[in-house]
Amino acid sequence: xxxxxxxxxxxxxxxxxxxxxxxxxxxxxxxxxxxxxxxxxxxxxxxxxxxxxxxxxxxxxxx
Length: 63
Prior knowledge:
Layout: H1 2-7, H2 11-14, H3 17-22, H4 27-40, H5 51-62
Helix pairs in contact: 4-5
């Protein structure tokens, strides 16, 4: 379900109210974090990012 929503870029409809309020005006960041999360949901471990890769991606968003 989450992966389908990310693939269709329906993130705004998927977020619950309190998340929507905090993320207001930060759509691009929400999309980038969702893309990282989608990679983490890959069935094959070889296709999933390592924890180090995820940490680096999230650190990049914070700067």
